[in-house]
TrEMBL record:
PROSITE patterns registered for this protein in UniProt: ABC_TM1 (PS50928)
Protein topology in the membrane: Multi-pass membrane protein
Family: Belongs to the binding-protein-dependent transport system permease family.
Coiled-coil ranges per UniProt: none
Presence of the UniProt keyword Plastid in the record: no
ABC transmembrane type-1 domain segment(s): 94-307
Superkingdom of origin: Bacteria
Name by which UniProt lists this protein: Sugar ABC transporter permease
Pfam families per record: BPD_transp_1
One GO cellular component term: plasma membrane
Amino acid sequence: MSAPTLTRRPAASEHGALGAREPRQGAFVRAVRRNLTAHAFLIGAVLCFGFFSWYPMVREVILAFQKTEKGVVSWAGWSNFVYVFNDPDFALAWRNTALFTLLALLLGFVVPFVVALVLNEFRHARGYLRLLVYLPVMLPPVASVLLFKYFYDPGHGLFNRLLELFGLPAQQWLQSSDTAMLSLVIASTWMNMGGACLIYLAALQTIPGELYEAAELDGAGLLRKIWHVTVPQTRLILSLLFLMQIIATMQVFTEPFLLTGGAGPEGSTTTVVHLIYQYAFNFSNYGAAAALGLVLLVVLAGFSAAYVRLNRAEQE
């Protein structure tokens, strides 16, 4: 008579682990099926962002340390950066870019805020006025620039006609190194102020009216109410748009390229991005173009890091 065989029963803990694992796997599969469409859209967006944004950035970093001679690509080390830093136009381009940024901040940053303050006081036709202010943004940039090129015409341009009405001498707006940069800033301000103006206007409408009433009871005038009420209440929007204005103006290209041919009279409108364009498409020196683009990227990243740090310090 054979001895009875004993079968080992799984412990209770093993049953619990197996039972818990199966529902977890089932829940995961159900969650994936339920969110499959969302995941598909997300993957598509990530792939597009990676291909059109991250890949060019990585390719630019690699290209900055390479050189191409007779179709042969080889590593160049820091020679592209040495070439860029020793270029006489390097300092000129940065000086012109800094000047354009400064003038654009004085006009393009202040003027939209003032226009938003004026629009905020209107109680009627506010929608029409918003459309009127935002209309230049809806126009193609090239069309807007060519329109200003006609306005700046020294013979029969609109601006010289207005000067003649007031008995003032006509100006060589784009042909003189003294007025060429200011002409670019005026055109750029008119083209781009609509978006900033609407953002300012939205921020102004969130300010409680009680704050202005309290300021009036304290005897504050218009300027003091703007300085002590409006500016503090919109400080976050002001600082953010200030940073965006710096980043946008330091990458200016369309206005000088179409209005003054890029360099302008005596090189007065040569900007960093136009110098990158010259390296790549006029001199076929893609390594130098990538190196200068990488320098510009580092400078703009420095401005962004400074903004984040200052904003964090204010919040703390």
